[in-house]
Design goal:
Layout lengths: L2 H15 L10 E2 L4 E4 L2 E5 L12 H14 L16 H11 L4 E5 L2 H12 L2 H4 L4 E5 L4 H10 L3 E4 L4 H10 L7 E6 L11 H10 L2 E6 L20 E5 L9 E5 L1 H10 L1 H4 L6 H13 L4 H20 L11 E7 L1 H13 L2 E2 L2 E2 L9 E6 L6 H22 L1
Parallel strand pairs: 3-12, 5-6, 5-7, 7-8, 8-9
Antiparallel strand pairs: 1-2, 2-3, 4-10, 9-10, 11-14, 13-14
The structure holds pyridoxal-5'-phosphate.
Pyridoxal-5'-phosphate binds next to α4.
């Protein structure tokens, strides 16, 4: 056995001792509300399919149609022969939704962040290591992009425009290119960045504002257009509210052309397959007309937050369809997730390093497939369990 194996085993053992070891569990899904696992069914509160589009007839229909007509693969990278004529109309739709000159479809949202940021922060092109001001709770894929570019991030306190302003002022005399990097809706907290203030700072300090709109697109903003209107460059994914898969960047024509010439994740990766593009295309057509679903999801999240607050649960600063229940230790989060599961409710525990130490949590996401009674059941179980430790202590 290679010497490296024993080091990997030691790593896994230490993760297990800290209650942080992860594992994969096979689940079965036949609709957007219920998942099956190990012979039981659960109401799923851990899905990012906010508009329940993944089982939508129009999306499935176009995916099947495009598979039949164009095949199940694209055959090559977009720079070789994979740039099927299906891409351009989809990119035009995204550019229009995001109010940018152009858009570029890539593989997953993770790959888009990791590869696009690496290219944008390339010091050999910029002439110097850029100054990258980043919210400290940004998604892992953004860190990967920064790391791949070899830039040191200047982290500002989460959603704290005043702190960002201080950092920008501190580097005022520095003439290196500046970028500000934030999510719109934060994936593990469900809170929303103060984008108008951040955009003002970006203008004031001549910084390029890059916003990851993954969890807002489709579900928030006018017609589901997201919250990234003030951004210079928008990064996003089709894997959340749009129900499918794939990533994109919306920007100026120049940035798009630059990425086509410099972004390894686009150049050296096979283009998305036609059925996936079909689902994206149908989702882009459906989403603007889904105001009723968006309002319903918002009302479910509000119903949950009100109930959670009444029983003393900590839901952080969430104002979106993502609501954390912050419990503290990994053990507490795992135990709560387990007890919900016993009641037929699925809510994964989220632990460090995905969230900061001491803030392990359940991360709940509400979708158009949920019923109000699902939320009430969830609250009932949480109320019972939340009270239980005190009851035992008495
Ligand atoms: C903010 C954010 N950006 C990017 C991604 C990655 O997107 P995808 O799942 O399409 O790879 C995620 C998904 O977890 C995310 O939460």
């Amino acid at each position: 056995m290679a010497a490296s194996e024993s080091r990997y085993e030691a790593f896994l053992d230490s993760r297990a001792r800290e209650g942080l070891r992860r594992s994969l569990l096979a689940v079965a899904a036949r609709d957007a509300r219920i998942i099956g696992a190990e012979g039981r069914s659960y109401v799923n509160f851990s899905s990012n399919d906010y508009l329940a589009l993944r089982f939508n007839e129009a999306l499935i229909g176009r995916a099947m149609q495009w598979a039949e007509i164009y095949g199940v693969g694209s055959g090559a990278s977009r720079l070789v022969t994979g740039n099927l004529d299906l891409f351009a109309p989809i990119e035009a739709k995204i550019a229009q939704v995001k109010k940018k000159q152009a858009a570029l479809v890539m593989a997953s949202g993770f790959q888009t962040n990791a590869a696009v940021l690496q290219a944008l922060f390339d010091r050999s092109v910029l002439g110097a290591e850029p100054l990258v001001f980043a919210d400290r709770l940004n998604h892992a894929s953004m860190h990967f992009g920064c790391q791949a570019a070899g830039v040191r991030q200047l982290r500002y306190h989460h959603c704290d425009a005043a702190h960002l302003g201080e950092l920008l002022s501190h580097y005022q005399g520095d003439d290196r290119p500046r970028f500000i990097l934030t999510e719109s809706v934060f994936s593990m907290d469900g809170d929303i960045a103060p984008l108008a203030e951040i955009a003002l700072l970006a203008r004031e300090h001549d910084a390029c504002l890059i916003v990851d709109d993954a969890h807002a697109t489709g579900i928030l903003g006018e017609g589901g257009s997201g919250l990234s209107g003030a951004a210079d460059i928008v990064i996003g994914t089709f894997s959340k509210a749009l129900g499918g898969f794939g990533g994109y960047v919306a920007s100026t024509e120049t940035v798009r052309e630059y990425l086509i010439n410099r972004c390894g994740g686009l150049i050296y990766s096979t283009a998305l397959p036609p059925p996936v593009l079909g689902a994206i295309d149908a989702a882009l057509d459906s989403v603007p007309g889904m105001d009723t679903e968006r309002a319903y999801v918002a009302s479910l999240a509000e119903r949950f937050r009100a109930g959670a607050s009444a029983i003393g649960l900590d839901t952080g600063a969430s104002t979106s369809q993502i609501v954390p229940v912050i419990l503290g230790s990994p053990e507490a989060a795992i135990a709560m997730s387990y007890r919900l599961r016993q009641a037929g409710l699925w809510a994964n525990s989220i632990r460090p390093p995905t969230v900061p130490p001491g803030t392990a949590r359940l991360r709940l996401a509400f979708t158009a497939a949920h019923q109000e009674t699902d939320i009430d059941r969830l609250l009932d179980v949480l109320a019972g369990e939340h009270a239980a430790p005190h009851a035992r202590a008495m």
